[in-house]
UniProtKB/TrEMBL annotation:
Domain of life of the source: Bacteria
Taxonomic classification: Bacteria, Pseudomonadati, Pseudomonadota, Alphaproteobacteria, Sphingomonadales
Protein name: LysR family transcriptional regulator
HTH lysR-type domain residues: 19-76
PANTHER family linked: HTH-TYPE TRANSCRIPTIONAL REGULATOR YBHD, NITROGEN ASSIMILATION TRANSCRIPTIONAL ACTIVATOR-RELATED
Length: 317
């Protein structure tokens, strides 16, 4: 049995500086093939080069790593120890390569998405479901807010992309905008509300308390324009940018709200609200995908963008 003495053990700097990747590859090949010639062929070096590499390792460890016999080589205790770690290092290297390849194929990564409330339940929901199916390794976070808040977050690097619109008066110098869909509006109340079935909806609605977005926001501008067209404003208004707060208030009272149609349809399908058959001229301008012009897309971002385009196409079909 091979005897290991303290003087044979190389220092850590010596191991790091003198062991090379070709040494580890040779050890793995020797463990697999059992002969120096076959191992040299496997790693595509000459036999003299393989012999030299083995001698370098034995010189580093201060003792023989293999016992030579007519049938090939048998590892000593030193040889077994170093071969075991060589196999681990090379396996980790293979794992690294797989991870890098997965990153290139967008199998892993993180994308932070901002969305206005119209984009969240329809377009974004479809895209997230598809991304989760096709690329489960991609971590996605979603922030729902108004466009003015989201644009600030985008420019500050707090989100990677957004579904929304550039607010009026904002510069698009550092933004790339790809329009996707328009945004009709709907007036909604709780199921069984007294105005349901009314022949004078506008007049009946204006006497109710309205739950609407605070100013300034594109949606609030359209709501105010609707009130101007009706020639009067409601006496009571509650302002909130929270969809859930709006829905909760509507369900618990005779309050009225106005939301993007795609958002309202989702809650109506769940039986939470009733959309009134009221034709509105007010319509929000088209929203789209917005990114920073000077930001290079990661593979994960590129896949999210492609999936969003596919979801938008599917909704338009």
């Amino acid at each position: 049995m091979q005897v290991i003495t303290p003087g044979m053990i190389p220092t850590l700097p010596a191991l790091r500086n003198r062991l090379r990747m070709r040494h580890l590859q040779l050890l793995e090949a020797l463990a697999e093939h059992g002969s120096l010639r076959a191992a040299a062929d496997a790693i595509r070096v000459t036999q003299p080069a393989a012999t030299k590499a083995l001698q370098q390792m034995e010189g580093l460890l201060g003792g023989p790593m293999f016992v030579r016999h007519p049938r090939g080589l048998t590892p000593t205790v030193l040889g077994e120890a170093l071969t075991r770690y060589a196999t681990t290092v090379l396996a980790d290297m293979a794992s690294l390569q797989s991870e890098l390849a997965a990153m290139a194929e967008c199998m892993v990564g993180r994308v932070r998405i901002g969305a206005i409330m119209a984009g969240a339940p329809g377009l974004l929901t479809r895209a997230l479901v598809e991304m989760n199916r096709a690329y489960p390794g991609v971590q996605m976070s979603v922030r729902v807010d108004t466009s003015d808040i989201l644009v600030q977050a985008l420019l500050a690097g707090q989100i990677d992309l957004m579904i929304g619109r550039v607010p009026e008066g904002w510069s698009t110098e550092h933004l790339t905008v790809d329009l996707m869909a328009d945004e009709p509006l709907s007036v909604l109340v709780r199921p069984g509300h007294p105005v349901v079935g009314s022949k004078h909806l506008a007049g009946d609605l204006i006497r109710q308390t309205w739950v609407i977005q605070p100013e300034p926001s594109p949606l609030r501008e359209q709501v105010n324009e609707t009130f101007r067209q009706w020639g009067q404003r409601p006496q009571s208004i509650i302002e909130t940018s929270s969809i859930l707060t709006s829905i909760s208030l509507i369900r618990a009272s005779d309050m009225v709200s106005i939301l993007p149609e795609v958002t309202a349809r989702d809650f109506e399908e769940m039986g939470a609200i009733t959309i009134l058959p009221l034709s509105l001229d007010a319509r929000l301008p088209p929203y789209g995908l917005i990114t920073r012009t000077n930001r290079e897309c990661t593979p994960a971002m590129s896949r999210v963008i492609e999936t969003l385009h596919g979801a938008a196409h599917g909704m338009a079909a």
